[in-house]
Amino acid sequence: MITAKQMFQLRDTGGAVAISEEEAPLSKERILRSQGEEVGALGKMQVKDLRAWFGKTEIIKGVSLSVADKRVTAIIGPSGCGKSTFIRCLNRMHEVVPKAHVAGRVLLDGVDIYDRKIDPVKIRSRVGMVFQRPNPFPTMSIRENVLAGLKLNGVKVSRPDELVEQVLEQAALWGEVKDILNRSGASLSGGQQQRLCIARALALKPEILLMDEPCSALDPIATSRIEELIHSIGKVCTIVIVTHNMQQAARVSQYTAFFYMGELVEFNDTDILFTKPGNQRTEDYITGRFG
Amino acid sequence: MHQTRINHSKEVPKLELGEHHGKGGRNFGDGVFKWMSAVFAASAVFLLAAMVIQMTRASALSIQRFGFGFLVERDWNPVQEIFGAFPFVFGTVVSSVIALLLVIPIALGVAIFLSELAPGWLTKPLSLLVELLAAIPSIVYGLWGMFVLAPWLLKTVYPILTQTLGFLPLFQGVPQGNGRGMLAAGIVLAIMILPTVASVSRDVMASVPKGYREGVLALGATRWETIRVAVLPNVVSGIVGAIVLGFGRALGETMAVTMLIGNRAEISASLFAPAATIASMIANDYSGASDELYLSVLAELGLVLFAVTLILNIASKLLVWRVGRIPGAERSL
Asked: Is the per-residue pLDDT at B292 higher than 50?
């Protein structure tokens, strides 16, 4: 069977990354793949009938899915389908926008993050986020940027320098910045800034890392570096990535959800979704007939 | 493709600009408009220059007679023709500094609340209300100060200050019977410059990109931490600009200060004591100044005030412009 990755590698002519061909051991996890919320023991996060609004406009219209632990789950769909809003609901960032509200349940290790007793600040330190536009803190140095989350959460680090090195190494940035750690985070290039933001999120050892179109503001080379990075981090950390780039979804993820008009149309193994989509709209979208 | 385009343009008859409107039609209007606006723009510069020249000429006599010593002379005795600007420079600066010290925490609080914390429905009406403070005429502030503020200060505030902070020379001495003095003027000035400082500060805070706030929030920051980490470090220069702008206004404010400061050309350590500012001095004395020298002295006082406020305003404008240069913010990716 030809995999989605191989399919897109055949289609792509330039700029694509050669990701190691090692396949994720999916067989056990197929229980997760079907529509909706069939919850497997491996689910790190379960979303149940999630609805989100801006004012009176319903953006997310009842979505249920399960996010597998230590895997990369991609969310694809045309612009305005609610994919960004959806992942912003997973760390309670949606509600910081005026007039936005959320209904439904999001279980993180079985605990509803929308429970009234839960402090959203705590959730955000457990569920990290990387944004579309790189947003390193311009008044802080590279080093301070990496340690910012720990400082905010009052975590004492015994050897901060080691941690900075380790995290930047993990974010594939150490080699480029090891001699300029005291320069402003804003002095880096766009791609480096985005990797710094990933490092900043990783320093908190998040249980889940949400990425909202992390490459949409970057050039192809920077994009390929981030994709490699997602691939390697995805083995130790649960990742949910929103992307409008289907090739990217196929390259980096093990599971893919297709959103359309605020609804989850199809959720499956990435390979299956891209090669044998079970829904006509999914097929139309991935073959480029709309969107 | 390229070739066809060139051919196409050859076939179409060339239209001269302005052809539809007869000779010179549209272009002529453009030219007139350009020159007219240039003249208006130049007139502002011309006015400023003309004022400086006129005021310098009017104060020539005083400048000749007293020279630089005018600024440091502490005596003011028109009868004996001793004129020193120092008590007025002192009064101007001190009353404005009092106003600033009072207004900075309040204005920052208002700005942070309006730009970061207030629920959406409250932001607009509240901003409007704060800005409305700027619309109240100076003389109304003066009246309110005379009839409400000064008596209240005399009865309630001065005694408390004397009891608690009386060991400082600032809060010693017997206030005037009507409560007017340096502190009263400073408080009214603070209220008068609050809208300027608060609304400029709010605007610079609102100019901080949303991404910074979200970046901090997503790391598990509380609201206050978000303000402290994402907003404040990026707006320091803008807020300094807002404060300097307010300072400039306080320095030049005339009517309310004249009504409240007590108008005595004295230098006292006590904030309860009456004093005078450059502006209040001119307002009080210009009608009574008959001889040429006295008028010339008042003109020089005006020149000094003008120079101080001009420098401060330019400094504040430069600082406010710097806000546009938040490092990294201008870098579009």
From this structure: yes
Total CB pairs under 8 A between chain A and B: 88
Q: What is the pLDDT of residue A269?
A: 92
Chain position carrying tokens 């093990």: A254
Q: Does A206 touch chain B (CB under 8 A)?
A: no
Position B316 confidence tier, pLDDT thresholds 50, 70, 90: confident
Q: Judge contact between A19 and A251, C-beta under 8 A.
A: yes
Domain residue spans of chain A: 4-11+31-286
How far apart CA A158 and CA A160 sit, in angstroms, is 6
What is the architecture of the domain spanning A4-11+31-286?
Answer: 3-Layer(aba) Sandwich (3.40)
- Inspect the interface and report whether the beta carbons of B225 and A152 lie closer than 8 Å: yes
| Model pLDDT, residue B198 | 94
Q: Answer yes or no: do B211 and A135 touch at CB < 8 A.
A: yes
Q: What pLDDT, in 10s, does the model give residues B210-247?
A: 889 999 999 989 989 999 988 998 888 889 888 988 99
Comparing CA positions, the residue from A113, A138, A133, A134 lying closest to residue A124 is: A113
Beta carbons of A172 and A183 less than 8 angstroms apart: no
Q: What is the pLDDT of residue B71?
A: 86
Q: Helix and strand tally (H, E) in chain B?
A: 16, 2
Q: B220, A121: Cβ pair inside 8 Å?
A: yes
A141-180 residues touching B, CB cutoff 8 A: 148-149, 152-153
Closest CA of chain B from A18, distance in Å:
26
Q: Which of A125, A138, A184 sits opposite B219 (nearest CB)?
A: A125
Q: What does pTM read for this prediction?
A: 0.76
- If pLDDT is split at 50, 70 and 90, which confidence band does B266 have? confident
Question: Which CATH number is associated with domain B73-325?
Answer: 1.10.3720.10
User: How sure is the predictor about B333, in pLDDT bands with cuts at 50, 70 and 90?
Assistant: very low
d(CA B266, CA B28): 62
Residue B320 has a pLDDT of: 67
Compare all CA atoms of chain A with the CA of B229 and give the residue at the minimum distance: A137
Using a CB-CB cut-off of 8 Å, the residues of chain B touching A193 are 328, 333
Number of H helices, E strands in chain A: 11, 10
Q: Which residue of A has its CA nearest to B118?
A: A98
Domain boundaries, chain B: 16-58, 73-325
Query: Using CB atoms, which residue from B218, B219, B328 is nearest to A138?
Result: B328
**Nearest CA-CA distance, residue B123 and chain A, Å:** 12
Q: Compute the radius of gyration of chain B from its Cα atoms.
A: 27
